[in-house]
Specification:
Strand content: under 5%
Number of helices: 13
Distance between the termini: 77 Å
Shape: globular
Radius of gyration: 30 Å
Low-confidence stretches: 297-301
Length: about 300
């Protein structure tokens, strides 16, 4: 009996052993490096003015006047903040800006949500045309409404009131709010509304129990985006406010300009630091909700 010999086993592949301590260096990712550099530049551009503003608000008046305004302060003092409240009625200005901002945001959110709900969810004939007309309002400049509004406010005794600022600020912010709410409502599953309708819920109940709770992130986004514009508004307040008691922050900062145009810069910088702090704190706390609200309008949420 002849036994067939097994085929020869091929030699095992020799794996080269890399000497210890010598690892292959990863190739630098050019795109990632450029992205990091760009992000760092953006952060520096955004953070540096705030840091400079805060440091300048702590400098003495003589140090700022005689030294380099962009140099580090030689000494720090909190006297500028006390002088800021003494020179101008800063507390009342902050309160007035808060009232105007909150009142305008309430109108923007309620009217924007209801308009977007009627256009996008309920739907009606020519709803797309109505939405397009609202979006045209984004490109309308606010200056064209100053004279007509001033005449109308004079006729109905609305000059020098909170409403004289709240109404136009809310009106010019509505188009963007409606756009954001419509973009979000577009991706809410229709089955959710159909199931609620089968359970006997009407349009008002659906809006209150389904649409409003789902819109929380978008509401935060709308409020934060508009609050920056409303808090810093100067043109409407300067046109419709006539008394010192209703001056908002941008108008109140004019009190730091003295005779012959002399400006108390350190006190002014201290006042600006006080006025921007609430917005910064709110933005830092709610920035994640704002980002989610912006993403919900672009991706299916």
């Amino acid at each position: 009996m002849i036994t067939q010999a097994a085929p020869p086993t091929p030699p095992a592949a020799v794996v080269p052993v890399r000497p210890p301590g010598k690892r292959r260096r990863p190739r630098p990712d050019l795109f990632r490096t450029l992205s990091r550099v760009l992000i760092m530049l953006i952060v520096i551009v955004q953070v540096y003015p705030l840091a400079w503003l805060f440091l300048t608000s702590l400098r003495t008046e003589q140090d700022f006047a005689t030294g380099d305004p962009f140099a580090l302060p030689s000494s720090l003092t909190w006297e500028n903040y006390a002088r800021a409240f003494e020179t101008g009625d800063l507390g009342r200005n902050i309160l007035n800006s808060f009232i105007v901002t909150m009142g305008a945001n309430i109108l923007i959110v309620l009217l924007g949500m209801m308009a977007a709900y009627a256009i996008q969810v309920l739907g009606f004939r020519l709803s797309k045309l109505v939405r397009g007309l609202f979006l045209i309002g984004i490109i309308v400049p606010v200056q064209i409404a100053l004279v007509p509004l001033f005449i109308d406010y004079s006729a109905v005794n609305l000059l020098d009131t909170y409403l004289s600022m709240i109404i136009p600020l809310a009106g010019f912010s509505l188009p963007m709010a409606i756009y954001l709410f419509c973009s979000f409502y577009e991706y809410i599953p229709k089955e959710t509304y159909e199931a609620a309708s089968l359970d006997g819920a009407g349009p008002y109940r659906i809006f209150g129990l389904i649409t409003m709770p789902l819109s929380l992130n978008t509401v935060v986004t709308v409020v934060l985006v508009n609050s920056i514009f409303i808090w810093n508004d100067f043109i409407f307040a300067n046109t419709f406010v006539l008394s010192e008691d209703l001056k908002t922050i941008p108008l109140g900062l004019q009190n730091y300009i003295g005779a012959m145009g002399k400006v108390d810069w350190t006190a002014t910088f201290a006042a600006v630091c006080v006025t921007i702090t609430p917005l910064l704190l709110v933005f830092l706390v709610l920035n994640k909700a704002m980002i989610q609200g912006l993403e919900s309008g672009a991706t299916k949420g």
